[in-house]
Each structure stands twice: as structure tokens, then as C-alpha cells.
């Protein structure tokens, strides 16, 4: 009997250990990869951030405050925030509507609509700006009609809003479409069968299921809207104190060799970006935690 149960535990342990070693990278490989990743982050992310903050506060808090409260800088900050306040809600509504239509319904032209949504990713922002100048400029296709009705699009705030709305159009929709497709439409159909209206079905069934994806898409849309440069540079005319957003004003200051002021204004944009990243990280953490809690139940 004893010979029929050989002393295999050690052998089994050895095999398990060998298998474990075969499926894991050596320590030096893992450490090297971690070192390369950290070096890349330090060189291309942390170092530029440190340079911006150092340049902004190098000459003291008083100089920084004077640079960011100077009339042109203050106007650039207000204009950037104004555009974000206009563009983000527009793309939020559009993104939810288009994601709902694509994920919940079948219709002709659906692949074409998906391609149109991705169009801002495929076209250079500078080309986008040029397109809208051709459409709405004084010598453009609609220029005579706009001039006759005293409407100004190019070299004005409406043009900035239009090109930023176009550039940020896909973010909310592209975040929601796969999420809503994965969830299916059984819950909505059950709600409608029980007599709920379309609005109540959306508010009490669909929206709770997509809220974190929606917030994530809004965060991405907000970040892109604040930092858009190429298309805005074309349609705004770069009029100082009138149509310059924060990125354009920073470029103006830097080209005029006002480096401290440029870094000071850059620190505002950097601060907004850090807040956006913090909110994004919180949303991702909460979404992951919610998924783990749901799977545990």
C-alpha cells in the first residue's frame, strides 16, 4: 500500500515550481521594464510639468498673479471656460442621443453614421479650421448670406465654439456606444412593457446603467475642449483680448519672449488638466470598485 502512494508531493511541488518559473519573467526583466516605464513617465510627463510650475513661480507668487490676472490673460481664461460650458453640454446631449440610437435600434445607414462620428479623429484640426473658414468666412460659401444678416462666425466666438464642438464630438458617443451595446436592451423593453414612458425608461433604467461611462466621456470631452489649438488658431484670427483661448494666449506670450507670463498662464491650463485627470482617475476607480462589488454579489 505504501509503495502505491509514492512520495510524489515533493515532485509535484517541483513541477509546480518549474511551471511557475516558466510562466513568469525573470526579476531582471520585470525590473528593467518598470525602470524603462518610470523613466519614460519622468522624462515626458513629470519633467515638463515641473518645468512649467518652476517657470511659473520662479519669480514669486506676485509675478504669477499679475500674469494670470492681466486683462488679456483673464479674457483668455474666461473665453476658454465659456467655450467649455457651451460645448460640453452640447456634446453630452448629442453623445447620449447618438449612442442610444446606434446601440438600441437597427436602421439603414448605421455604419455610415458610425463613420461620421469618427470623422474628427481622422481629420487634422488645422484642416477642420480651414473647412469652416471656407464655409463661413467672408469669402466663403455662406459668407455673403451671413454678412447680409450681420452674423459673424469666423474670427468670433461662434466659430471657436463650432470647431471645438466638432473636434470633441466623438468622445461621449464613443464611450457610451460599446457600453450600451454590451448591456443590451432587455431592461428597457421590460420597462416599456410594464407601462413606463420612454422618458422614465431612460431616466430610471438607462441612465443609471451608463452614468459612469457618461461621466468619463464628459471628462475626455472637457479635456480636449480646453486644450484645442489647431482649429481654433485658424478660425479665431488670434485676436488678442478677443478671440484668444488659453492655448493661443500662451503661444502669443511665448513668441513675444514673455516666458514667465507664458509659464504662469500655462500653469492655469496645467492645473485644469490635473483636476481633470484626478476626476478621471476617481471615476475609473469607482467604476472598477462597482464592478468588483457587483461580481462579488
Your description of this structure?
The chain has about 300 residues and is mostly helical. Helix content is about 80%, strand content about 0%. The chain contains 15 helices and no strands. The chain has helices at about 10-20, 25-55, 60-70, 70-105, 110-115, 120, 125-135, 145-150, 155-165, 170-185, 185-195, 200-225, 230-235, 245-255, 260-295. Helix 3 (about 60-70) packs across helix 15 and helix 4 runs parallel beside helix 10. The longest helix is centred in the C-terminal third of the chain and has 38 residues, at about 260-295. It is globular and about 65 Å long. Mean pLDDT is about 85; it is low at about 10-15.
Tell me the overall shape.
globular
Summarize the helix and strand pattern as letters: HHHHHHHHHHHHHHH
CA-based gyration radius: 27 Å
Low-confidence stretches: 8-16
Descriptive labels:
297 residues, mainly alpha
How are the SSEs placed, and which strands pair?
Blueprint: H1 9-22, H2 27-57, H3 61-69, H4 71-104, H5 110-117, H6 119-122, H7 125-136, H8 143-148, H9 157-167, H10 170-183, H11 186-193, H12 198-227, H13 230-236, H14 246-255, H15 259-296
Summary, kept brief:
The chain contains 15 helices and no strands.
Amino acid at each position: 500500500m505504501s509503495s502505491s502512494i509514492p512520495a510524489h508531493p515533493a515532485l509535484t511541488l517541483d513541477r509546480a515550481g518549474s511551471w511557475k518559473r516558466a510562466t513568469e519573467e525573470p526579476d531582471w526583466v520585470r525590473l528593467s521594464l518598470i525602470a524603462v516605464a518610470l523613466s519614460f513617465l519622468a522624462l515626458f510627463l513629470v519633467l515638463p510639468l515641473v518645468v512649467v510650475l518652476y517657470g511659473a513661480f520662479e519669480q514669486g507668487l506676485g509675478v504669477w498673479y499679475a500674469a494670470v490676472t492681466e486683462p488679456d490673460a483673464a479674457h483668455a481664461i474666461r473665453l476658454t471656460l465659456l467655450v467649455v460650458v457651451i460645448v460640453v453640454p452640447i456634446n453630452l446631449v448629442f453623445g447620449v442621443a447618438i449612442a442610444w440610437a446606434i446601440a438600441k435600434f437597427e436602421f439603414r445607414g448605421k455604419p455610415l453614421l458610425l463613420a461620421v462620428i469618427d470623422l474628427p479623429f481622422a481629420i487634422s484640426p488645422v484642416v477642420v479650421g480651414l473647412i469652416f473658414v471656407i464655409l463661413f468666412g467672408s469669402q466663403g460659401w455662406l459668407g455673403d448670406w451671413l454678412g447680409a444678416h450681420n452674423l459673424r462666425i469666423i474670427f468670433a466666438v461662434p466659430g471657436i465654439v463650432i470647431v471645438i464642438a466638432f473636434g470633441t464630438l466623438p468622445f461621449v458617443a464613443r464611450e457610451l456606444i460599446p457600453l450600451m451595446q454590451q448591456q443590451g436592451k432587455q431592461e428597457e423593453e421590460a420597462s416599456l412593457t410594464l407601462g413606463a414612458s420612454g422618458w422614465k425608461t431612460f431616466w430610471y433604467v438607462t441612465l443609471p446603467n451608463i452614468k459612469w461611462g457618461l461621466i468619463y466621456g464628459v471628462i475626455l470631452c472637457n479635456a480636449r475642449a480646453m486644450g484645442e489649438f489647431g482649429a481654433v488658431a485658424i478660425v479665431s484670427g488670434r485676436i488678442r483680448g478677443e478671440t484668444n483661448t488659453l492655448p493661443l494666449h500662451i503661444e502669443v506670450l511665448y513668441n513675444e519672449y514673455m516666458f514667465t507670463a507664458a509659464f504662469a498662464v500655462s500653469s492655469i491650463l496645467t492645473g485644469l488638466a490635473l483636476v481633470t485627470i484626478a476626476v478621471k482617475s476617481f471615476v475609473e476607480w469607482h467604476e472598477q470598485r462597482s464592478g468588483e462589488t457587483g461580481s462579488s454579489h
